[in-house]
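REVIEWER CHECKLIST
Item 1: Sequence provided? yes
Item 2: Single chain? yes
Item 3: Sequence as submitted:
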Amino acid sequence: MRKKIFCKYDKAQISTLPRVLFNGRIVVVLTETEAEKAVSYLLSQPILGLDTETRPTFKKGQHHNVALLQVASHEVCFLFRLNQLGMSPSVKRLLEDHTVPKIGLSLRDDMASLMAIGTFERGNMIDLQDHVREVGVEDLSLQKLYANFFGQKISKREQLSNWDADILTEKQKLYAATDAWACIMLYEELMRLEETCNYVLVKSEDVE
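Item 4: Structure as written out by the authors:
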């Protein structure tokens, strides 16, 4: 039986889905020494998921620099606290690496935020939005994509929390790690479906 993928996903359905969370190890990276070890591990992996978090702004004209870079393998997610690290040599090495594919969503925005704190040459980055468009999916948010492809809900409750806080809460850590890890899961599923063609795209007019 072929997997059913929706061209447009009904947001109202998301609240009814079971929640998904990253269940691997989460490591907070605060110093360049820690970053060097983290990057060495990450660049030994076959694929990585990548995302960033920035403290939200609630006043017109207010701006905050990107505070967190989260990079996950299947088993471990490292949370690079860029508000303390900045564009450190190891972080730059990770972003410039061309050997390991790094999967993200709306990477143009993430790269612009990262460039604002330090220049680097963009390495092997793959934007999920490019691939889901190829199969005909139009709703491109991470939450809708995960619900569409896996029938599970990614909670966005922590998205507008303070990412510049001295200490991240456990909920913040789990939220950040889940977003990065989910990018790997979506990319691998997309590659499987594209290779096998074992899916059917349901368009809006086909839904009763």
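Item 5: Key structural point noted by reviewer: The chain has a mean pLDDT of 93.
Item 6: Recommendation: ____
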